[in-house]
Design brief:
Bound molecules: nicotinamide-adenine-dinucleotide
Radius of gyration: 20 Å
Number of helices: 11
CATH architecture of the largest domain: 2-Layer Sandwich
Strand content: 25-35%
Shape: globular
CATH topology of the largest domain: Dihydrodipicolinate Reductase, domain 2
Order of helices and strands: HEHEHEHEHEHEHHEHEEEEEEHHE
CATH superfamily of the largest domain: Dihydrodipicolinate Reductase, domain 2
Oligomer: single chain
Length: 334
């Protein structure tokens, strides 16, 4: 993902891609060579201190999101941090407080906000087309899709969790954004490690996270959201993503098409006893990337499209679902 960030900044005229860091020197040199960047660091903290940067983008294993964000803010830099914001709420709050105190931008790359069909739906929701949303289901399942099986993704110490914190984080954020960020009141969740655990044993690899998590989130406004995320589940498609939200006047869905990373979106509406389906055929309004959004919010001193507060709200739900799965009890928020 670091390469994607670097390419995103390299392709935008309002910023300069000044330096790159990766503890893996081979990877670092390859990206540096491909993008024509000479200032290369195998120590990210050294880059933060010495490279005379205005801002830094952090796309490393989840465990390092918080320490590197704090180091960057301490050095006076603005930060774009990958999702999940952190390993847990405590870390996420520390990052937010540091950014606020230093007067620096902290944006979280919850990147589905920048997906054109999601933008089209947000526009409709904000116009009141489906009315207040009171029920939804937000899902990302993979039939078999443990990223880098045996690497940091399946290691709880480095990732904080499995598919819920990796994939579910996107779908929870998308649902919350479309719902207008209601306040979570309580969550109840379950987590399993069945298919991946068996595969890990067979391949003699370490795998310490869940392979499926699911749960229910209740909000203080009375709305309910069902959440499902897996890296390994006996489902039909290789990849199945859907966010369905139901309001007083209509419903919506944003989903991938036949297991691919192509997307479609629909609205379900009722008028005078007649039922209509509105399909998003084409989005012609340009959707800025997270990188453009981040640079622009620094230049114009505006609020980034994905704020640290929003990242924390998602993280609260993640933490709550994991805690509930572990204790077998509902987790209530004050
Ligand atoms: N927004 C999205 O759609 C999206 C997609 C993929 C990954 N991500 C996120 O991006 C982050 C990285 O994921 P990835 O798929 O690129 O992982 P990856 O394992 O492919 O790459 C991680 C890179 O970080 C380097 N690294 C590890 N520790 C480091 C440290 N302390 N300092 C500097 N470099 C370090 C590794 O050498 C490696 O090159 C994760 O937080 C992941 O959740 C987001």
């Amino acid at each position: 993902m670091g390469r994607v960030h670097a390419e995103g900044f390299a392709g935008y005229d309002n910023c300069e891609l000044a330096a790159l860091a990766d503890v893996d020197e081979k990877r670092l040199n390859k990206v540096g060579e491909d993008l024509g960047v000479n200032a290369l660091y195998t120590d990210p903290e050294k880059m933060i201190r010495d490279a005379k940067l205005d801002a830094v983008s952090i796309a490393v294993p989840n465990k390092f999101h918080c320490p590197l964000t704090l180091a960057a803010i301490d050095a006076g830099l603005h930060v774009l941090c990958e999702k999940p914001m952190a390993m847990n709420v405590a870390e996420a709050e520390k990052m937010n407080i540091a950014a606020q105190k230093a007067g620096k931008k902290l944006m979280i790359n919850l990147s589905y906000r920048f997906q054109p069909t999601c933008q089209a739906l947000k526009h409709q929701v904000d116009k009141g087309v489906i009315g207040p949303i009171y029920f939804g289901r937000t899902v990302w399942h993979r039939r078999r899709g443990m990223p880098g099986f045996g690497g940091w993704f399946g290691n709880k110490e480095l990732a904080g969790g499995g598919p819920l914190i990796d994939l579910g984080v996107h779908r929870i954020d998308l649902a919350l954004w479309l719902m207008g960020h209601p306040q979570p009141a309580a969550v109840s969740g379950s987590a399993y490690n069945i298919i991946a655990a068996a595969e890990a044993a067979k391949q003699q690899k370490t795998f310490t996270t869940e392979d499926l998590a699911c749960g229910i989130v209740k909000f203080t406004n009375g709305a309910t959201l069902l959440v499902e995320a897996s890296w390994a589940l006996n489902v039909n498609e290789e990849e199945h993503m859907t966010t369905e939200l139901y309001g007083e006047k209509g419903g919506l869905v944003q989903r991938n098409i036949r297991g691919t990373y192509d997307w479609e979106a629909e609205l379900y509406l009722e008028e005078d006893g007649l039922f209509f389906t509105k399909h998003v055929d084409k989005v012609t309004t340009p959707t800025p990337s997270a990188y453009v959004d981040f640079v622009d919010c620094i230049i114009n001193n505006t609020t980034p499209s994905v704020t640290a507060d929003e990242g924390i709200k998602v993280q609260k739900i993640l933490d709550g679902l994991y805690k509930s799965a572990e204790t077998g009890k509902e987790v209530r928020y004050e």
